[in-house]
Design a protein that fits this description.
Order of helices and strands: HEHHEHEHEEHEHHEHEEHHHEEHEEH
CATH superfamily of the largest domain: Type I PLP-dependent aspartate aminotransferase-like (Major domain)
Number of helices: 14
CATH topology of the largest domain: Aspartate Aminotransferase, domain 2
Largest sheet: 8 strands, mixed
Number of domains: 2
Structural class: alpha/beta
Radius of gyration: 23 Å
């Protein structure tokens, strides 16, 4: 029965049953965690074959001693892997250490204070600058903007992807908007895959926006497919080149959820013009990345085909967890007016939209019952979800049995919060 069709007596009876189940969870002293999208120990073990591969191979075939300083661009084969992952040429890619988040932060710091292409292009010279943030989105993107004092403008996802009409109108009207955050394949947390049309239009935003605009294209989940015949993301740089605005595109990716989350390699790609300016900033803070880690990764992964083969093994571990999440949501909440959720084809998250005004209460109840969830509002700039509705579920880290138990708790908490909200309305 739909929630709003229930009378007060029915609501109170169901509340009583849900509270009884909730108490059982409280008595079980559960300690379950669905907060962050971390790979599980089983996934990390898939890359243990990297250990020992460096023996006798610390001198590159081109004569470079990988144990020493230098090599700011990264070793050639790692640059090629990054290029293949991002749809670029190898000379348009630099290879960094384990996290692409660092590269994104450093690039925006560089753009804000030093200028994307020289001091005269520094964003800070224009006063209060702004960024478009698709919501719900990735909290760490928002934290970077908040750290730099960049004002964030929320733009919602539509059912089929970004609200392109609104995005284009915003950048045409306001030259202080200097960029947009995009996670184009399996968006965090909604799971959206940008269509060909969306990629083409975003690639051309540099023609509509004010000077020194940048699309921050975070392809964090570009190979993180759950299906055997996955969707293919259109290469954004091809369209930007065709439009003559290739300088407006900055792309990043990493192996953080491919090999070792705390010991992978990362990539930043863009036009040669962009990379030349950014390289100058990096030379101030580093004398080169960890080339030995790049080497062992390439000995292990070999190429993009090797990455895809490894990711199929990841999918075998992850797919049952995502199916378990969907099973509980469908069986417990479908057709009851108790929210909606994504059915991702890849990536690391399920996005659940509760009835407005209940997300904080659901998360509080779940925490009380021993299931930690990402804080309400985390998927919005300034931790402020105006509808108090979105909850990001991250089922990747726990073992399957824990995901199953956590979802039982979650569904019960959703029902309880929704029922209690209706009781207040009808009392």
């Amino acid at each position: 029965m739909q929630l709003e069709q229930m009378n007060l007596e029915q609501l109170q009876n169901e509340e009583k049953n849900l509270l009884s189940t909730h108490q059982q969870f409280l008595d079980s002293s559960l300690k379950l965690d669905l907060t962050r999208g971390k790979p599980s120990a089983e996934q990390l073990s898939l890359s243990e074959g990297m250990e020992g591969l460096l023996a006798g191979k610390m001198i590159h075939e081109d004569g470079t001693d990988l144990r020493n300083y230098g090599g700011a661009n990264g070793i050639p084969e790692a640059r090629q892997l990054g290029a293949d992952m991002l749809g670029l040429t190898a000379d348009e890619v630099m290879v960094g250490d384990h996290t692409s988040l660092t590269l994104m932060y450093l690039y925006l710091l560089h753009a804000y204070y030093h200028g994307v292409q020289g001091a005269e292009t520094a964003w800070v010279k224009e006063g209060q600058v702004k960024f478009i943030c698709l919501v719900p989105g990735y909290d760490r993107h928002f934290t970077i903007c908040e750290e730099l004092g960049i004002e964030m403008i929320n733009v919602p996802f539509l059912e089929d992807g970004p609200d392109l009409e609104k995005i284009e109108a915003l950048v045409e009207q306001d030259s202080k908007i200097k960029g947009i955050w995009c996670v184009p394949k399996y968006s965090n947390p909604t799971g959206h895959i940008y269509s060909s049309e969306a990629v083409k239009r975003i690639a051309r935003l540099g023609l509509k926006a004010g000077a020194n605009f940048r699309v921050m294209w975070d392809n964090a989940y570009g190979v993180h497919d759950l299906e055997s015949s996955p969707p293919v993301l259109e290469p954004i740089m091809e369209h930007a080149r065709a439009a003559g605005c290739e300088d407006s595109i900055i792309q990043v990716a990493s192996t953080s959820k491919i090999t070792f989350a705390g010991g992978g390699i990362s990539f930043i790609g863009g036009s040669l013009n962009n990379l030349n300016h950014f390289r100058k900033r990096l030379s101030v803070m580093t004398i080169g990345p960890n080339k030995l880690n790049q080497r062992r990764h390439m000995l292990f992964l070999q190429d993009l085909d090797g990455v895809k083969a490894l990711m199929k093994e990841h999918a075998e571990i992850l797919s049952p967890k995502f199916k378990t999440v969907e099973k509980h949501l469908n069986e417990g909440l479908q057709g009851r007016g108790m929210g909606s959720w994504s059915s991702p084809r890849g990536g690391y998250f399920v996005s659940y939209d509760a009835p407005p005004g209940t997300a904080k209460e659901i998360i509080r109840l779940a925490g009380e019952a021993g299931v930690k969830l990402t804080p309400a509002g985390a998927t919005f700039p300034y931790q402020n979800d105006p509808n108090d509705a979105n909850i990001r579920l991250a089922p990747t880290f726990p073992v399957l049995e824990e995901v199953d138990q956590a979802m039982k708790v979650f569904v019960n908490c959703v029902k309880l919060a929704c029922i209690q909200q209706q009781i207040k309305k009808k009392s």
